[in-house]
Design a protein that fits this description.
It contains one helix and two strands; from the N terminus they run βαβ. The protein has 58 residues and is α+β, with helices and mostly antiparallel strands.
Length: 58
């Protein structure tokens, strides 16, 4: 299975951190099987953060 992560930077080696929260869609490293969904999110993140370029990580 190929998973995609959309961001405003390349995710070379994601750092997974244990947390004490039990929230849906809180802090985390999110992936999807849909390249289109990840690309859409990458553009939103780059626009919102005003830094970097939309990047699709596989």
């Amino acid at each position: 299975m190929i998973l995609y992560h959309g961001s405003n930077m390349t995710a070379g080696k994601p750092k997974l951190v244990a947390q004490n929260r039990y929230l849906d869609f809180g802090f985390g490293f999110y992936t999807t099987a849909s390249p289109g969904q990840a690309a859409s999110f990458a553009h939103k993140v780059a626009d919102r953060r005003k830094t970097g370029a939309a990047t699709l990580n596989m």
